[in-house]
TrEMBL record:
The entry's keywords: Cytoplasm, Hydrolase, Nucleotide metabolism
UniProt keyword Cell inner membrane present: no
Active site, per annotation: D66 (proton acceptor)
The name this protein goes by in its record: dTTP/UTP pyrophosphatase
Top-level EC class as recorded in UniProt: hydrolase
Originating species: Loigolactobacillus coryniformis subsp. coryniformis CECT 5711
Lineage: Bacteria, Bacillati, Bacillota, Bacilli, Lactobacillales
NCBIfam families tied to this protein: maf (TIGR00172)
Length: 187
């Protein structure tokens, strides 16, 4: 199986299900020209990544995923700068936002399977000092919504409703369901 991602978090989570995979990042544009709802946004990007790798490796089982943070229908990808991360955290603090992950699976000569998982995340009310302290860890880099729940970012969170692993970037229960019956599953 190929995981169409270079994300260390996705690799770590997939290893909880199987060790029989290779990670090959899809080199595709993540730019979407027209605004989409968050669920459609992640479905589009997960499919784009999965299709790119499937085209290169047509006899392989390919798994891809895409994750975004959404607040009031605005999508927050990975922040492009410290200032963008600060602005995102200031907006999310004290509020409930959504994390969407699309999971895309293609087996050779079988129909594509795709699921979207949503988790609601409520941040604590944060002071400017707390936000700056978190940003000083550099953990916000390469994380949708400028935080990682599995690290110091977990200290910013008051509550979650839904799949914890979805917030990390790969809802492993859904992946397990999609892979159930495969000989790769739970080795």
């Amino acid at each position: 199986m190929i995981l169409a991602s270079s994300s260390p978090r996705r690799q770590e989570l997939l290893r909880r299900i199987t060790t029989h995979f290779e990670s090959i990042p899809a080199r595709v544009s993540e730019h979407i020209t027209k605004p989409l709802a968050p669920a459609q946004h992640v479905q589009t990007l997960a499919a784009r990544k999965g299709n790119a790798i499937s085209a290169q490796y047509p006899t392989a089982t390919v798994l891809s995923a895409d994750t975004v943070v959404s607040f009031r229908e605005q999508i927050f990808d990975k922040p492009k700068s410290l200032a963008a991360a600060r602005a995102t955290l200031n907006l999310l603090q004290g509020q409930t936002h959504q994390v969407y992950t699309a999971v895309w699976l293609k087996r050779p000569q079988q129909a594509i399977q795709q699921r979207v998982v949503r988790t609601d995340v409520t941040f604590l009310s944060l002071t400017a000092h707390q936000i700056e302290r978190y940003l000083s860890t550099d953990e916000y880099r390469d994380k949708a919504g400028a935080y990682g729940i599995q690290g110091y970012g977990g200290l910013l969170i008051k509550a979650i409703t839904g799949d914890y692993y979805n917030v990390m970037g790969l809802p492993i229960t859904v992946v397990s369901e999609l892979l159930a019956g495969d000989e790769l599953f739970l080795d």
